[in-house]
Amino acid sequence: MEASSNLNALLRKNPDDVVITMAIRSPLCKAKKGGFRDMRSDELLTEMFKQAINHSGIDPEVIEDICVGTVLPKGPTYEARTAALTAGIPESVPIQTLNRFCSSGLMAVTTIANEIRAGQIDVGLAVGVESMSWNPDVGPEGASDDIKACGPANDALQPMGWTSENVAHEFNVSREDMDDFAAKSFQRAEAADKAGYFAKEIVPFTSYLKDPATGVRKKVTVSKDDGIRYGTTKTTLLKIKSAFPQWLPAHTTGGNASQITDGAAAVLLMTRRKAMELRLRILAKYANAAVTGLAPRIMGIGPTIAIPKVLAKVGLSKNDVDLFEINEAFASMCVYCVRKLELDPEKVNVNGGAIAFGHPLGATGARQIVTGLNELERRRGKVLVTSMCMGTGMGAAAVLLGEFE
């Protein structure tokens, strides 16, 4: 397909471009059961920082700011700062944390990109991380009577499973549609795993697992995702009982929703000028991002608003996009988003998604960039769009342009 004039303009290289020179992730491991189950959240983050330093190709003193996207820790900035120092990042490198639910990893990337674009820094590190083993998601801790009396505000406090059922009901997404989508996610992830595609984006992590007999933790190396269920079919998924029978149409199950998972990802960004000075390989150019709000009761449809918004900002159409990475929070929302935006299913989550290998809340936004760029390079594509919905009724999306120099 011939590139549009707007795409050609975006692909032009300028010294002030914000570029990505490293995009790596941990394996994704089942919470409470997988390879990181006995690892503290600050230990997981420390290991991510160590791996980022090892794979960055730069002295960490060059980093001028770090942004960590994470959702569940009670003291996130304490964890981030102490983990960075423990990993060997100098005291002179500042750090910040942010929480915009499922987009936190993407927002960390966007925050660093905006700082670079504004001229505040030349080099920054974005990290997304979540240990759902160490910090289980317990939901909101309550609300005032005034908030409970406000319909949309009260909706924003409700469980995410309820919002999945609302999307399925309101937009006529059937159980068969959802299980068909979920089966494809597992099958694509299995095929990509067997082909070794993920090995190019995953960096092996040192973890600590307790000996069941002694309770003593021992070091182990974790190098593969452990949530992919080989041999999954629509037929097997249709046999799983509803996870939320109290909410109609009760189509959401443990087989067609994202897995509860531990994991992390890291993205190094800088100006093109700095990357050339440091002689670093450029993977992609950061184009732009967009966020939006919407009715909390159908929060899953966020990508249907955020994706057109970000494409309009950069002057592209969906036909210019080679790959979409849309977070599979629930199959109901993914089925609807693909249908509503009239996307080519062969361009969406081509190596599976969160249904197949998990959704560590703060990590997913960065993880999707890592996975998307890895596959974009394999296909020699040009345009990646990554997107997700977020609890309380929001959506986010970003456009990245592959270079792979």
TrEMBL record:
Domain Thiolase C-terminal: 281-400
Keywords: Acyltransferase, Transferase
Active-site residues annotated for this sequence: 102 (acyl-thioester intermediate), 359 (proton acceptor), 389 (proton acceptor)
Highest taxon in the source lineage: Eukaryota
Biological processes per GO annotation: fatty acid beta-oxidation; phenylacetate catabolic process
SUPFAM superfamilies: Thiolase-like
Reaction equation(s) it catalyzes: an acyl-CoA + acetyl-CoA = a 3-oxoacyl-CoA + CoA
One Pfam family cited in the UniProt record for this chain: Thiolase_N
Pathway: Lipid metabolism; fatty acid metabolism
A GO molecular-function annotation: acetyl-CoA C-acyltransferase activity
GO CC term (a single one): peroxisome
Ranges where the Thiolase N-terminal domain occurs: 18-272
Stated family: Belongs to the thiolase-like superfamily. Thiolase family.
NCBIfam families: AcCoA-C-Actrans (TIGR01930)
UniProt name for this protein: Thiolase
Organism: Russula ochroleuca
